[in-house]
Write a structure and sequence with these properties.
- There is one protein chain.
- By secondary structure, the protein is α/β, with parallel strands linked by helices.
- It has two domains: 119 residues, Response regulator (Rossmann fold), CATH 3.40.50.2300; 93 residues, Orthogonal Bundle (Arc Repressor Mutant, subunit A), CATH 1.10.10.
- Helices cover 40% and strands 21% of the residues.
- It has a five-stranded parallel beta sheet with strand order 2-1-3-4-5, sandwiched between helices. It has a four-stranded antiparallel beta sheet with strand order 6-7-8-9, covered by helices on one side. A three-stranded antiparallel beta sheet has the order 10-12-11.
- β1, α1 and β2 form a beta-alpha-beta unit.
- The N and C termini lie far apart (39 Å).
Length: 225
């Protein structure tokens, strides 16, 4: 089920029609409090389309609260907003958003982004080994999407886990931003390469003592060493 959160009822109607036509089940909320109430029911949504500007609780606060709750901390969140400043995108990513779309947007592109987010969140898959992966101070549980640094568990979003797994599985190999967009984001048209930098910056911050494993290669991309 996809939860659509926006205070524009006409937009909700349009998005629900487009998503249902593609075979998705939907539910709608027009306020932040309503969204939190629906999202915390069992089962949790498969994905949340979350407007940044809501009449009661801001989208960033809703996102922050969802990431703090065990039942919803891994639910993909795609933010919708009329704001297009880089600082707003950075703040959205900082509180745990997986993607960011500025209004006005193409409904068809939005549906493609939804599919890409859901597809990349399907970890583990046939290419992911069962059990755990260890590298220095890091340990990854590929089945439970859990990560530890020096024995302390680090909470990551589904996208952050996918990004870290891509690095660990290809350690020592250079990863360009374009490669990461294809393999982690699904390379949906319109996603800027700056998105990769923002997510890696946030991932490094969470990894703390293990952040130096991700090496920046200026003008090229990144490498896990």
């Amino acid at each position: 089920m996809i939860l659509v959160v926006d205070d524009e009822r006409d937009l909700i109607t349009t998005l629900e029609f487009a998503l249902r036509r593609e075979g998705f089940r939907t539910q709608a909320a027009t306020t932040g409090r309503e969204a939190l109430a629906i999202a915390t029911r069992e089962p949790a949504p498969d994905l949340i389309l979350l407007d940044l500007m809501l009449p009661d609780v801001s989208g960033t606060d809703v996102c922050r609260q969802l990431r703090a709750r065990e039942a919803t901390k891994h639910v993909p969140i795609l933010m919708l907003t009329a704001k297009d400043d880089e600082i707003d995108r950075v703040v959205g990513f900082e509180v745990g958003a997986d993607d960011y779309v500025s209004k006005p947007f193409s409904v068809r592109e939005l549906v493609l982004r939804v599919r890409a987010i859901l597809r990349r969140g399907q970890i583990p898959d046939e290419t992911t080994p069962e059990g755990s992966m260890e590298f220095g101070r890091l340990r990854l549980d590929t089945q439970a999407h859990r990560v530890w640094v020096d024995g302390e568990e680090i909470p990551l979003t589904a996208l952050e886990f996918k990004l870290l797994y891509a690095f660990v599985a290809r350690r020592g190999r250079v990863q360009t931003r374009e490669t990461l967009l294809i393999d982690v984001w699904g390379h949906v048209s319109g996603i800027p390469t700056r998105t990769v930098d923002t997510h890696i910056q946030r991932l490094r911050k969470k990894l703390g003592a293990a952040s130096d494993y991700i090496e920046t290669l200026r003008g090229v991309g990144y490498r896990f060493r």
